[in-house]
């Protein structure tokens, strides 16, 4: 086998690579196109136009390009992403792309082409409803959370996994951009002057900031389970019938509620971008995600052979309640950082001026409310909270 040294691929070398790997034969005529959004990674779509056979080659870049600047970023995240996709694939094969090949030196993962699906953020903005989205993501999240935790894996093996997923550079991005910068006057923040008084109120809001500090502390130290780490609606491909989770380069061992909170927040951001009469489908997705999560979790709990106290349902309820409370808090952080931090969501940014400002103010208000009422909010409460 060939030992590769790192160099960024281009259309020609990407084709050469997949032929070397025998994913296509030497004689096939292939077309390659770079389709990534280019801040952290290259993504090549490679297709044989005669047979329509196609694959995706994703390669990590050794730096992050953000607002004209660039800083170094470990290539090891490509291996973490590939391992996480395979791990997810062993638990919920129908909900992630197949991985065909990975090379650590090249920081390349070759995977199933999902171009027949749409990125769910894009689809939701266009009014798609994705009737199975919450069923699938609820099941995905419960399987990953339970089956990579101490409730399903022997403690010694689980600690090996924790070590395998140590991901300091990418965790640091989250620690800064989700839990720190938006709550202080940092120059990475990004918001319009019309929002300044709301933002300055947040910066002096010690009650909300204390909750953010606690959630950040948990993110930094709690190794409960393998989390995806970047589970917004842009990391989910969907159609009427299928759902596929991609892009776990931020994966690490973290809190049970983190992914759930980010997913819920991104559904809420889309909800806030819509007129009142078109919101219920999103709110139903939130309640369904949590229902399915709990049902799936409880089934896995009863079946698990590892943790000696599993049969006591009070213990399961305690963990689920802690998971939901954390998810509400993480959703609050995500609502705020997507509104005034570095990375916004198109759902809201693409609205006309007045609607955008209203949606942004509502997102800040809701984010603050979630942070300061974590233990009181049920999945069914979002409907009323959104209307207020
Ligand atoms: P990044 O980490 O840079 O955000 P992603 O993994 O999210 O990279 O991929 C960026 C884009 O590339 C996606 O939004 C999607 O358009 C395309 N893409 C990524 N993976 C696939 C895939 N398996 N099949 C089809 N398109 C993909
Ligand atoms: Mg991207
Ligand atoms: Mg990514
Ligand atoms: Mg992405």
TrEMBL record:
Reaction(s) the record says it catalyses: 5-(methylsulfanyl)-D-ribose + ATP = 5-(methylsulfanyl)-alpha-D-ribose 1-phosphate + ADP + H(+)
Record: residues binding ATP: 41, 58, 112-114, 247-249
A single BP term in Gene Ontology: L-methionine salvage from methylthioadenosine
Superkingdom as given in the UniProt entry: Bacteria
Family matches, as Pfam families: APH
Keyword Kinase: yes
One Gene Ontology MF term: S-methyl-5-thioribose kinase activity
UniProt keyword list: Amino-acid biosynthesis, ATP-binding, Kinase, Methionine biosynthesis, Nucleotide-binding, Transferase
Binding site for substrate: 230, 337
InterPro entries reported for this sequence: Aminoglycoside_PTrfase, Kinase-like_dom_sf, Methylthioribose_kinase
EC number: 2.7.1.100
Enzyme class: transferase
Location of the Aminoglycoside phosphotransferase domain: 32-265
Job description of the protein: Catalyzes the phosphorylation of methylthioribose into methylthioribose-1-phosphate.
Subunit structure and binding partners: Homodimer.
Protein name: Methylthioribose kinase
Organism per entry: Priestia flexa
């Amino acid at each position: 086998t060939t030992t590769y040294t790192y160099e960024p691929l281009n259309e020609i070398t990407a084709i050469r690579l997949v032929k070397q790997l025998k994913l296509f034969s030497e004689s096939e005529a292939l077309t390659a196109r770079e389709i990534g959004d280019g801040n952290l990674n290259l993504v090549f779509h490679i297709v044989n136009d005669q047979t329509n056979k196609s694959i995706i080659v994703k390669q990590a870049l050794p730096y992050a390009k953000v607002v004209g600047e660039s800083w170094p970023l470990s290539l090891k995240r490509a291996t973490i992403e590939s391992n996480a996709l395979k791990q997810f694939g062993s638990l919920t094969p129908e909900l992630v792309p197949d991985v065909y090949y990975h090379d650590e030196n090249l920081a390349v993962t070759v995977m199933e082409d999902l171009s027949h699906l749409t990125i769910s953020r894009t689809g939701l903005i266009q009014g798609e409803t994705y009737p199975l989205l919450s069923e699938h993501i609820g099941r995905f999240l419960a399987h990953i959370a339970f089956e990579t935790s101490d409730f399903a894996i022997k403690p010694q093996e689980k600690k090996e996994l924790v070590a395998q997923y140590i991901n300091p550079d990418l965790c640091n991005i989250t620690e800064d951009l989700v839990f720190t910068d938006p709550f202080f006057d940092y120059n990475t923040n990004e918001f319009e002057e019309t929002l300044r008084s709301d933002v300055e109120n947040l910066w002096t809001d010690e009650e909300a900031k204390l909750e953010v500090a606690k959630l950040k502390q948990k993110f930094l130290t709690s190794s409960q389970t393998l989390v995806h780490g970047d589970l917004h609606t842009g990391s989910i491909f969907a159609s009427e019938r299928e759902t596929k989770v991609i892009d776990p380069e931020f994966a690490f061992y973290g809190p049970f509620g983190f992914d759930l909170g980010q997913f819920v927040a991104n559904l809420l951001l889309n909800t806030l971008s819509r007129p009142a009469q078109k919101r219920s489908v999103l709110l139903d997705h939130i309640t369904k995600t949590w229902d399915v999560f709990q049902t799936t979790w409880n089934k896995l709990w009863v079946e698990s052979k590892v943790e000696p106290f599993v049969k006591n349902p009070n213990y399961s309820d305690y963990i689920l309640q802690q998971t939901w409370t954390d998810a509400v808090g993480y959703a609050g952080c995500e609502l705020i950082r997507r509104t005034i931090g570095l990375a916004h969501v198109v759902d809201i940014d693409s609205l006309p001026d007045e609607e955008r400002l209203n949606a942004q103010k509502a997102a800040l208000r809701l984010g603050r409310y979630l942070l300061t009422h974590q233990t009181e909010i049920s999945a069914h409460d979002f409907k009323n909270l959104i209307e207020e």
